[in-house]
Amino acid sequence: MNDAHQKLVDQYVEIAKLAGSLAHEIKNPLSTIRLNVELLAEDFSADPEDPLHRRALAKVQVVQRECQRLQDLLDDFLNFVRVRPLKLEPSSLNGQVKEVLEFFRPKAQQARIEIIEFLAADLPTVLLDREAFRGALLNLILNAQQAMPEGGQLVVRTSATIDGVALDLIDSGCGMEPSTMAKMFQAFFSTKKAGSGLGLPTTRKVVEGHGGQIRVQSEVGKGTQFTIRLPIPARLAADPAHHRVDRTP
């Protein structure tokens, strides 16, 4: 890494720290506001027959919803700018996928989403920060759920590649316009009314932090496919003990 590149990295880290500190400072008064608004809501709901109280309560509830939106946005932003070295450990990609799918399965049943698994046996071991990777994967799955409001199918597929492993998430949802695909990884871009626009940028940040790549293909009315490609680090590729341990589909 040359000096100019290192300087840019250092500047980014400093800006991220400052932004994170500012977000934390905002959260403190926001918590006070939320608490007092909740107390106001309790006071105004004491006499639901009074028209004045009903109107006041409706306005207080609007403030409550907006406070929650701010809280969610701050949480997403802090997750996005968090400067934390990834703790990479030899891991089974299939194992991480199975954990996330088991967590999501009850929600999938409620949303009438059929999960179809094609997990290749005997995959090479990869290096993962398991917590960060599970969060990124869950975010993609929740995006797929939102694209299928009437239910549908989610195909989850893993495979070995020439230099690593690949994970495909294919949904039968509404698909995306090319203009949306061009901006989807930009911070704060969202097609959802209440979306923060930080979920997909955070996911890409995590994948790239693993030395991987994330790609998307989509067609309106037919669905979307996200593909994550992860490399096999040289030290694992050279070690037969780690090269192939994931033998369960």
Describe the protein's architecture and organization.
With 249 residues, the protein is α+β, with helices and mostly antiparallel strands. The protein folds into two domains: 3-81; 89-246, Histidine kinase-like ATPase, C-terminal domain (Heat Shock Protein 90, 2-Layer Sandwich). The chain contains eight helices and nine strands. Strands 2-5-6-8-7 form a five-stranded mixed beta sheet, covered by helices on one side. A hairpin with a 3-residue loop joins strand 7 (213-219) and strand 8. The protein is globular. It starts with a helix and ends with a strand. The mean pLDDT is 82.
Kindly report the spatial arrangement of strands forming the biggest sheet. 2-5-6-8-7
Number of helices: 8
- Strand elements, count: 9
The Rg value, from CA coordinates, equals 22 Å
β-strand percent reads: 15-25%
Q: In CATH, what is the homologous superfamily of the largest domain? A: Histidine kinase-like ATPase, C-terminal domain
Would you spell out the secondary-structure blueprint of this structure?
Elements: H1 3-44, H2 51-81, E1 89-91, H3 93-110, E2 113-119, E3 123-124, E4 126-128, H4 130-146, E5 152-160, E6 164-171, H5 178-183, H6 199-209, E7 213-219, E8 223-231, H7 234-237, H8 240-243, E9 244-246
Parallel strand pairs: 2-5
Antiparallel strand pairs: 1-4, 3-9, 5-6, 6-8, 7-8
Helix pairs in contact: 1-2, 3-4, 4-6
